[in-house]
Amino acid sequence: MTPAIDIAIKANVPHQVHEYKHDPNAASYGTEAAEAIDIDPARVFKTLLVELNGDNKRLAVGVVPVSGQLDLKAIASALKVKKVAMAQPQDAERATGYVVGGISPLGQKKRLPLVLDSSADQYETIYMSAGKRGLEIEMSAADLLRLTQGISAAIGRG
Q: Where does the pLDDT of residue 72 fall: very low under 50, low under 70, confident under 90, or very high at 90 and above?
């Protein structure tokens, strides 16, 4: 169990956990997950952390399809801040309690503002890291937003 899975269980949210053998040489954790569980990469979402207005103590979470990228201007707009930059991996790990490649939007050490790309709305369920490499959790986008008190916005591109 991971904190992400524990949150889903405690909230009685319908979910499914998918485990696969993680390859430490994989170029992209998200693409590896999509291939391993044989699902469209547009339904597999990666969790990225950004720092707000150049302050590495103020972080937020962007969740976008692994098949695309995070649009920094779009997430800044969604968060109503002037600018954002990608957080340093060590800052992301410290804030979430997870390791890079296994950062889940659920069960983080500290609740951070979260923005889920609106493309998630077109799927009955989406997949995201369950808190460690080789482990994905599947649930509805609406349940993810409810559990994280997040918002939905068009923050992905490509």
A: very high
d(CA 90, CA 72): 20
- The three-state secondary structure class of 74 is helix
pLDDT tens-digit profile of 104-132?
Answer: 999 999 899 999 999 999 999 999 999 99
Residue 77 neighbours by CB distance under 10 Å:
16
Q: Are 154 and 74 in contact (CB under 8 A)?
A: yes
Q: CA 102, 139, 101: angle at the middle one, nearest 5?
A: 10
- Selection from 38, 48, 37 nearest residue 136 by Cα: 37
Query: How many whole angstroms separate alpha carbon 143 and alpha carbon 14?
Result: 8
Output the pTM of the full model: 0.95
Beta-carbon neighbour count of residue 18 at 10 Å? 17
